[in-house]
Design brief:
The complex is a heterodimer.
Chain A: E1 6-7, H1 18-27, H2 39-59, E2 66-69, H3 72-82, E3 99-103, H4 108-119, E4 123-127, H5 137-143, E5 148-152, H6 166-175, E6 179-183, H7 195-198, E7 202-206, E8 217-221, H8 236-239, H9 247-285, E9 289-292, E10 302-307, H10 312-321, E11 324-325, E12 327-328, H11 341-345, H12 350-354, E13 356-360, H13 367-386
Parallel strand pairs in A: 1-11, 3-4, 3-5, 5-6, 6-7
Antiparallel strand pairs in A: 2-8, 7-8, 9-10, 10-13, 12-13
Helix pairs in contact in A: 1-9, 2-9, 3-4, 9-13, 10-13
Chain B: H1 11-18, E1 34-40, E2 45-54, E3 59-68, H2 71-84, H3 89-93, H4 97-103, H5 116-132, E4 146-148, E5 153-154, H6 155-163, H7 169-176, H8 186-201
Helix pairs in contact in B: 1-2, 6-8
Classes of the chains: A alpha/beta, B alpha+beta.
Chain lengths: 401, 203
Amino acid sequence: MADMKVYFDNNATTPLHPEVKTEMIAAMEVFGNPSSMHAYGREARANVDAARRKVADFIGAHEHEIVFVGSGSEANNTVLSLFVCGTSQCIPGTRMRSTIITTKIEHPCVLETSECLAHRGANVRFLDVDRYGKIDLDQLDSMLGDDVGLVSVMMANNEIGTLQDIETITKMVHERGAYMHTDAVQAVGKVPVDVRRLGVDFLTLSGHKIYGPKGVGALFAKKGIPYCPLIRGGHQERGRRAGTENTLGILGLGKAVEMRALEMDAEEKRLLELKSVLRQGIEERIDDIHFNGHPEDSLAGTLNVSFAGAEGEAILLYLDLEGIAVSTGSACASGSLDPSHVLLATGVDAETAHGSIRISMGRESNLGQVEYLLDVLPRTIQRIRNMSTAYIKGGCHVAGR
Amino acid sequence: MLQAGEWAYSEKLKEHFMSPKNILQGDNTDDFDGVGMEGNLQCGDQMMVAIKVDKEKEVITDCKWKTYGCASAIASTSILSEMVTGMTLDQAFHVSPKDVAKELGGLPDNKIHCSVLGDKALRAAINNYYIRNGMEDKVKEEQAKIVCQCMNITDHDIEDAVLEGARTYYELQEHTKLGTVCGQCKDEAEALLEKFKHIHFGA
């Protein structure tokens, strides 16, 4: 129906990089089990280890500190679950430190795991965020006591793109004797990430957010930090994650980070320019809007904007009919009935959360696509507002028009 | 490989979303004989229905609307406006969300609540017509009291759910979707649940 295809949902997932595709096609021939001692196994082992070195190099880690996992969600579950071990053998001293601190804007895989851990006896505290989605370091300081075992703060938010100062947060956490984890799934490959500079004990990354395959991620676990596997029953990943290695996915991830190292700097500059055009264009052409997220400390390709009087799922689907793919924080587009927990945490009202869309650009995004969106979006919003109760006599936005 | 799958919605719903019928143009409802509005923007859905009535026959001759909401909310108000045009006021008053969903070719479970506001707004418009024309005696106020504001669930709905088999708060939520948004109605709903269980089943 629509001539133009615009994929502006790169925070949800990304297309494979052509080089990754080539690598994975070749990797399909490598079928040996990396645990086998024969030639087939050694071939697979050599390639998995090479991919491990690429991932380690990319984030400044040692190769032994990289654990390949099935997803970012698995990595996050693994780290959080470490801290409710009933025995004191795995994590010495953590029984005395059974409190976990995280934020209200984490991915559901952290939030829901935290809630589950609370049922299993852990104390979980949630940090507030300000209107831009930044955590309050004073609040963190006030929460950090001798009871805290782990602090988990996401580096870049998936919905609004806001970046946290992980380096400073980690220093505070370590001064108080707790461990630090960051979910960097949206940050790795988009902004520089060096685990030594950040100082973190654990860091999560994922393949499919950075033009690699789905079904593979990596957990950085600092050497010497206590560890306990979530999935047991095998010696793979140095006993830290059982299950025969996903050779195809791991090799894809290795190539993906290799390509990120080559492309990410120039891409960030390009995406910042595109975002500036997009932001300015939306501001000029549509009234009653609200930008969500931090104006500067934010992912280059992510722009989250709310339209008063227009519901997000309707916006998403009308754009879909015109060939444009975005996502929304509206309740109606998700399985639940609640609008985005991230937007609500930034203090916006429910209507603003319902009326939000997230535009997330990536390496294949270009100016022509931005201009096409800027052409389609104003008439889409106009069309929805024309049938909306928000702008009729007695409607809640009438005074503002 | 398969091509992009169909939407979560029926073709009929998609058609009404793509080309909604009977949208009220502008915001002037002065020419209409009855106007009603239900829902609110914070909950994600709001619908307004305006009707013109043949006063001799008490038949709806025109039905226009405005909706703030998702695709199924837009489509269900659109199809409702077509369904009720030509109906008598009495027939129109008894159009239920189930009738609307059926006409749309079904709705996904989590979208049922998007279709319940249109018929409520329609009933409000019909009552508004009666009041404007000095027929207060015909006004069928919904005696039911809304318990869950977010999902528009009344004590009558709770009673129906109990009669249909709901015995626990969880089952009540499964039946009605009550308390699934803000959750503030839980205490009141639980009290009513106990009351109706006692009345009907002596439990």
